[in-house]
Design goal:
Helix content: 10-25%
Strand content: under 5%
Distance between the termini: 25 Å
Order of helices and strands: H
Number of domains: 1
Radius of gyration: 14 Å
Structural class: mainly alpha
Shape: extended
Largest sheet: none
Number of helices: 1
Amino acid sequence: MAVTGADLAAAMDAVLAGGAPAADQKPSLGCNIKWTPGNEPEWFPA
């Protein structure tokens, strides 16, 4: 899937219009964030 920025633009438009961004969020891929053990989100693989 190509990165276009459309999701970011839609989220910004929703917030600026007084709404909320879509609840369906996808974690980024590539270089992951190093989480402190016990503080990683539930979607983060062990």
